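agent: user wants the structure for N-acetylmuramoyl-L-alanine amidase from Terribacillus aidingensis. delegating to structure tool.
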Amino acid sequence: MIRNRQLLIGICIIFTAIVLYPAASFAQSGTVDVDTTLNVRQAPSTSAHIIGSLYPGDIVELQEVANNWGSITYKGETGYVSMHYVHMRASELAGKVIAIDAGHGGKDSGAIANGVLEKRVVLPIAKKTQAKLQAQGAEVMMTRSNDSYIELEDRANQANTAGADVFVSIHANAASATAASGTEVYYYPGSSSGYALAAAVQTGLLNQLGSHNRGVKSADFNVLRNTSMPAVLAEIGFLTNAPEAQKLASASYQEKAAAGLVQGIRDYTD
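agent: tool returned. relaying C-alpha coordinates verbatim.
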Protein backbone atom coordinates (compact mmCIF):
# COMPACT_ATOMS: atom_id res chain seq x y z
CA MET A 1 0.00 0.00 0.00
CA ILE A 2 2.81 2.40 0.93
CA ARG A 3 4.61 1.62 -2.31
CA ASN A 4 1.42 2.25 -4.27
CA ARG A 5 0.93 5.59 -2.54
CA GLN A 6 4.53 6.59 -3.26
CA LEU A 7 4.10 5.60 -6.89
CA LEU A 8 0.87 7.59 -7.14
CA ILE A 9 2.50 10.64 -5.55
CA GLY A 10 5.42 10.35 -7.95
CA ILE A 11 3.11 10.20 -10.96
CA CYS A 12 1.19 13.23 -9.69
CA ILE A 13 4.41 15.22 -9.26
CA ILE A 14 5.57 14.35 -12.77
CA PHE A 15 2.16 15.18 -14.24
CA THR A 16 2.08 18.52 -12.40
CA ALA A 17 5.57 19.39 -13.64
CA ILE A 18 4.60 18.62 -17.22
CA VAL A 19 1.43 20.72 -16.98
CA LEU A 20 2.98 23.66 -15.18
CA TYR A 21 6.30 23.73 -17.00
CA PRO A 22 5.94 22.32 -20.51
CA ALA A 23 9.04 22.20 -22.69
CA ALA A 24 9.51 25.41 -24.66
CA SER A 25 12.31 25.17 -27.18
CA PHE A 26 12.43 28.88 -27.84
CA ALA A 27 11.96 30.34 -24.36
CA GLN A 28 14.43 31.19 -21.64
CA SER A 29 14.10 29.64 -18.23
CA GLY A 30 13.64 31.66 -15.07
CA THR A 31 13.64 30.79 -11.37
CA VAL A 32 10.92 32.10 -9.06
CA ASP A 33 12.51 34.15 -6.26
CA VAL A 34 9.88 35.02 -3.61
CA ASP A 35 9.40 34.47 0.12
CA THR A 36 5.93 32.92 -0.16
CA THR A 37 4.16 32.64 -3.54
CA LEU A 38 4.16 34.42 -6.91
CA ASN A 39 0.79 35.16 -8.48
CA VAL A 40 0.16 34.05 -12.06
CA ARG A 41 -2.23 36.53 -13.65
CA GLN A 42 -4.51 36.46 -16.66
CA ALA A 43 -3.00 39.67 -18.07
CA PRO A 44 0.22 41.67 -17.50
CA SER A 45 -1.23 43.85 -14.74
CA THR A 46 -1.38 43.72 -10.95
CA SER A 47 -5.13 44.27 -11.23
CA ALA A 48 -5.64 41.27 -13.54
CA HIS A 49 -7.38 38.12 -12.34
CA ILE A 50 -5.13 35.61 -10.53
CA ILE A 51 -5.24 32.18 -12.18
CA GLY A 52 -2.69 30.42 -9.98
CA SER A 53 0.48 30.60 -7.93
CA LEU A 54 4.12 29.63 -8.20
CA TYR A 55 6.49 28.87 -5.34
CA PRO A 56 10.09 29.74 -4.40
CA GLY A 57 12.52 27.87 -6.62
CA ASP A 58 9.93 26.94 -9.27
CA ILE A 59 11.32 26.95 -12.82
CA VAL A 60 9.27 28.72 -15.49
CA GLU A 61 9.72 28.93 -19.25
CA LEU A 62 9.36 32.55 -20.33
CA GLN A 63 7.80 32.95 -23.77
CA GLU A 64 8.19 36.73 -23.93
CA VAL A 65 9.16 39.54 -21.59
CA ALA A 66 7.82 43.08 -21.88
CA ASN A 67 7.39 45.94 -19.42
CA ASN A 68 8.64 43.77 -16.52
CA TRP A 69 6.03 41.07 -17.17
CA GLY A 70 6.83 37.59 -18.46
CA SER A 71 4.36 35.37 -20.28
CA ILE A 72 4.31 31.67 -19.41
CA THR A 73 2.12 28.65 -20.07
CA TYR A 74 0.25 27.75 -16.88
CA LYS A 75 -2.06 24.71 -16.85
CA GLY A 76 -2.59 24.96 -20.58
CA GLU A 77 -3.26 28.69 -20.78
CA THR A 78 -1.18 31.83 -21.07
CA GLY A 79 -0.38 33.49 -17.77
CA TYR A 80 1.75 36.43 -16.71
CA VAL A 81 4.20 36.84 -13.84
CA SER A 82 6.01 39.89 -12.53
CA MET A 83 9.65 39.75 -13.59
CA HIS A 84 10.59 41.47 -10.33
CA TYR A 85 10.31 38.01 -8.78
CA VAL A 86 11.81 35.87 -11.54
CA HIS A 87 15.55 35.41 -11.89
CA MET A 88 16.56 34.91 -15.51
CA ARG A 89 18.83 31.94 -16.13
CA ALA A 90 21.74 32.14 -18.54
CA SER A 91 21.17 31.08 -22.15
CA GLU A 92 23.30 30.75 -25.26
CA LEU A 93 22.10 34.21 -26.31
CA ALA A 94 22.78 35.97 -23.02
CA GLY A 95 24.94 39.03 -23.70
CA LYS A 96 24.82 38.64 -27.48
CA VAL A 97 23.99 41.67 -29.61
CA ILE A 98 21.61 40.72 -32.41
CA ALA A 99 20.75 43.11 -35.24
CA ILE A 100 17.26 42.51 -36.65
CA ASP A 101 16.41 44.26 -39.90
CA ALA A 102 12.79 44.45 -41.03
CA GLY A 103 13.11 44.92 -44.78
CA HIS A 104 11.72 47.92 -46.68
CA GLY A 105 9.42 50.37 -44.86
CA GLY A 106 7.99 53.84 -45.36
CA LYS A 107 7.88 54.82 -49.04
CA ASP A 108 9.36 51.43 -49.94
CA SER A 109 6.58 48.85 -49.61
CA GLY A 110 8.65 45.99 -50.99
CA ALA A 111 6.72 43.26 -52.75
CA ILE A 112 2.95 43.72 -53.09
CA ALA A 113 0.72 40.80 -54.03
CA ASN A 114 -2.60 39.29 -53.04
CA GLY A 115 -3.44 42.43 -51.10
CA VAL A 116 -0.42 42.06 -48.82
CA LEU A 117 2.50 44.51 -48.52
CA GLU A 118 5.89 43.07 -47.68
CA LYS A 119 6.75 45.90 -45.29
CA ARG A 120 3.62 45.13 -43.24
CA VAL A 121 4.50 41.46 -42.95
CA VAL A 122 8.15 41.65 -42.01
CA LEU A 123 7.86 44.29 -39.27
CA PRO A 124 5.64 42.21 -36.96
CA ILE A 125 7.90 39.20 -37.56
CA ALA A 126 10.88 41.36 -36.59
CA LYS A 127 9.15 42.60 -33.43
CA LYS A 128 8.17 39.08 -32.39
CA THR A 129 11.74 37.97 -33.01
CA GLN A 130 12.99 40.86 -30.90
CA ALA A 131 10.75 39.88 -27.99
CA LYS A 132 11.83 36.25 -28.11
CA LEU A 133 15.52 37.14 -28.28
CA GLN A 134 15.21 39.56 -25.38
CA ALA A 135 13.44 36.88 -23.34
CA GLN A 136 16.59 34.80 -23.76
CA GLY A 137 18.90 37.56 -22.57
CA ALA A 138 20.05 38.96 -25.90
CA GLU A 139 20.43 42.65 -26.65
CA VAL A 140 18.49 43.41 -29.82
CA MET A 141 19.20 46.27 -32.21
CA MET A 142 16.29 46.98 -34.57
CA THR A 143 17.12 48.87 -37.76
CA ARG A 144 13.51 50.04 -37.76
CA SER A 145 10.68 49.60 -35.25
CA ASN A 146 7.97 51.40 -37.21
CA ASP A 147 6.89 52.08 -40.79
CA SER A 148 9.91 54.21 -41.64
CA TYR A 149 12.24 54.26 -44.64
CA ILE A 150 15.88 53.43 -43.90
CA GLU A 151 18.61 53.45 -46.54
CA LEU A 152 20.33 50.10 -47.05
CA GLU A 153 23.73 51.50 -46.10
CA ASP A 154 22.28 52.94 -42.90
CA ARG A 155 20.90 49.55 -41.90
CA ALA A 156 24.34 48.00 -42.16
CA ASN A 157 25.96 50.98 -40.43
CA GLN A 158 23.55 50.69 -37.49
CA ALA A 159 24.55 47.07 -36.98
CA ASN A 160 28.26 47.84 -37.32
CA THR A 161 28.05 50.73 -34.85
CA ALA A 162 26.18 48.57 -32.34
CA GLY A 163 28.88 45.91 -32.55
CA ALA A 164 26.29 43.28 -33.39
CA ASP A 165 27.32 39.63 -33.23
CA VAL A 166 24.96 38.67 -36.05
CA PHE A 167 22.70 40.48 -38.51
CA VAL A 168 19.40 39.07 -39.79
CA SER A 169 17.37 40.86 -42.47
CA ILE A 170 13.75 39.70 -42.78
CA HIS A 171 11.92 39.74 -46.12
CA ALA A 172 9.02 38.20 -48.04
CA ASN A 173 9.57 36.96 -51.57
CA ALA A 174 7.86 37.49 -54.94
CA ALA A 175 8.04 35.79 -58.33
CA SER A 176 6.35 35.95 -61.72
CA ALA A 177 5.34 32.31 -61.29
CA THR A 178 2.54 32.34 -58.74
CA ALA A 179 3.20 28.70 -57.89
CA ALA A 180 6.63 29.56 -56.45
CA SER A 181 6.69 28.97 -52.71
CA GLY A 182 8.96 28.26 -49.79
CA THR A 183 11.76 29.64 -47.69
CA GLU A 184 15.34 30.56 -48.59
CA VAL A 185 18.16 32.30 -46.76
CA TYR A 186 21.02 34.27 -48.33
CA TYR A 187 24.57 34.97 -47.17
CA TYR A 188 27.41 37.00 -48.68
CA PRO A 189 29.52 35.04 -51.22
CA GLY A 190 32.67 33.58 -49.69
CA SER A 191 31.65 34.17 -46.07
CA SER A 192 31.97 30.88 -44.18
CA SER A 193 30.45 32.37 -41.03
CA GLY A 194 27.63 33.84 -43.09
CA TYR A 195 26.96 30.44 -44.61
CA ALA A 196 26.91 28.78 -41.18
CA LEU A 197 24.42 31.35 -39.90
CA ALA A 198 22.27 31.02 -43.03
CA ALA A 199 22.19 27.23 -42.73
CA ALA A 200 21.15 27.44 -39.08
CA VAL A 201 18.45 30.02 -39.78
CA GLN A 202 17.12 28.05 -42.74
CA THR A 203 16.86 24.94 -40.59
CA GLY A 204 15.10 26.84 -37.82
CA LEU A 205 12.56 28.33 -40.21
CA LEU A 206 11.83 25.02 -41.90
CA ASN A 207 11.36 23.33 -38.54
CA GLN A 208 8.79 25.90 -37.49
CA LEU A 209 7.03 26.69 -40.76
CA GLY A 210 7.10 23.35 -42.54
CA SER A 211 7.58 25.33 -45.75
CA HIS A 212 9.21 24.20 -48.99
CA ASN A 213 13.00 24.18 -48.69
CA ARG A 214 14.45 26.49 -51.36
CA GLY A 215 17.90 26.19 -49.84
CA VAL A 216 20.74 28.38 -48.67
CA LYS A 217 22.11 30.71 -51.34
CA SER A 218 24.74 33.42 -51.74
CA ALA A 219 24.07 36.90 -53.10
CA ASP A 220 25.79 40.27 -53.23
CA PHE A 221 23.05 42.13 -51.35
CA ASN A 222 23.94 45.54 -49.94
CA VAL A 223 23.13 44.70 -46.32
CA LEU A 224 25.20 41.52 -46.53
CA ARG A 225 28.13 43.18 -48.23
CA ASN A 226 28.42 46.14 -45.87
CA THR A 227 27.95 44.43 -42.51
CA SER A 228 31.08 43.48 -40.58
CA MET A 229 29.53 40.50 -38.75
CA PRO A 230 27.96 37.24 -39.97
CA ALA A 231 24.86 38.38 -41.85
CA VAL A 232 21.93 36.74 -43.60
CA LEU A 233 18.81 37.77 -45.48
CA ALA A 234 15.83 35.48 -44.91
CA GLU A 235 13.02 35.25 -47.46
CA ILE A 236 10.26 33.77 -45.29
CA GLY A 237 7.79 32.98 -48.08
CA PHE A 238 6.16 34.22 -51.29
CA LEU A 239 3.52 36.94 -51.33
CA THR A 240 2.81 36.07 -54.97
CA ASN A 241 1.63 32.64 -53.85
CA ALA A 242 -1.92 33.22 -52.57
CA PRO A 243 -2.01 30.53 -49.87
CA GLU A 244 1.44 31.51 -48.63
CA ALA A 245 0.54 35.21 -48.64
CA GLN A 246 -2.45 34.44 -46.44
CA LYS A 247 -0.18 32.61 -44.01
CA LEU A 248 2.40 35.40 -43.98
CA ALA A 249 -0.29 37.92 -43.08
CA SER A 250 -1.45 35.87 -40.08
CA ALA A 251 -0.15 36.53 -36.58
CA SER A 252 0.21 32.81 -35.85
CA TYR A 253 2.46 32.21 -38.88
CA GLN A 254 4.48 35.32 -38.05
CA GLU A 255 4.96 33.89 -34.55
CA LYS A 256 6.26 30.65 -36.04
CA ALA A 257 8.62 32.55 -38.33
CA ALA A 258 9.99 34.47 -35.36
CA ALA A 259 10.47 31.24 -33.42
CA GLY A 260 12.34 29.75 -36.38
CA LEU A 261 14.62 32.76 -36.68
CA VAL A 262 15.42 32.62 -32.97
CA GLN A 263 16.11 28.90 -33.16
CA GLY A 264 18.55 29.47 -36.00
CA ILE A 265 20.31 32.37 -34.31
CA ARG A 266 20.59 30.44 -31.07
CA ASP A 267 21.89 27.29 -32.76
CA TYR A 268 24.50 29.34 -34.59
CA THR A 269 25.72 31.11 -31.43
CA ASP A 270 25.72 27.92 -29.34
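agent: one observation worth passing along. The two ends are 48 Å apart (CA to CA).
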